[in-house]
Specification:
Elements (H helix, E strand, L loop, with lengths): L6 H7 L20 E7 L5 H13 L5 E4 L7 H12 L3 E4 L12 H19 L5 E2 L14 H9 L3 E2 L4 E2 L11 H10 L5 E7 L2 H16 L6
Parallel strand pairs: 1-2, 1-7, 2-3, 4-5, 6-7
Helix pairs in contact: 2-3, 2-7, 4-5
Length: about 220
Amino acid sequence: MDAYLCPASQERLKNPQYWGIKPQPLSEIIVMGKLRLSFDDGPKPTDALTKILTILADHSIIADFYVNGIEMDSAETKAAVRKIHDKGHKVENHAWSHKRLDTMSLEEVRQEISRNQDMIQAATGRFPTRLRPPYGAGAYPKSLDTEVVKAAQEFNLTLTLWQVDTEDWKSPISGKYDKILSDVKAKQHLELTDILMHVLNNTADGLNTLIEKLKEKGYEFG
């Protein structure tokens, strides 16, 4: 027998107040992409790096670390890079000397990349797959540098920038949580938002609170 609803019941079904859950207007539904934390420079200072790694582990977050070969100048710093890898994070190429690659010849860019590739591989057993040029120089879409692009391709490296810059090298993140949260919100429509920080003691000190504030807003890390 076919189900039958009287006209009054049919009208009630059209009225959301009779539904179990009131639907949320599509215009109010917020789709938030995931966040990725990335840390440039390093592995020095190693005490800051150790604290950052501990905080990330406490929150079960995997991050990306773009390191400079020139800072891997001792057994301690090489072990620190190995520790990044062993904790499950990606160790990527930030060039050897942290100089602007877009001011160099093709051969000089190759050397900057190659030396760092080899140093990271020796420490971790893995060659980086991404290159973040220091200062982003030469990788911005509107100002791509021919030599940087060509050298990256030769080493099968993907040029990588970021979406949110905390500018933690200018001032501690602990003094600008609201600004960072606002910047992240402006990018939440993206599938993945890369938040740029650096291996610094001030950043290590403010990182836990930043992560907690982001989680409170409902963000997830990927």
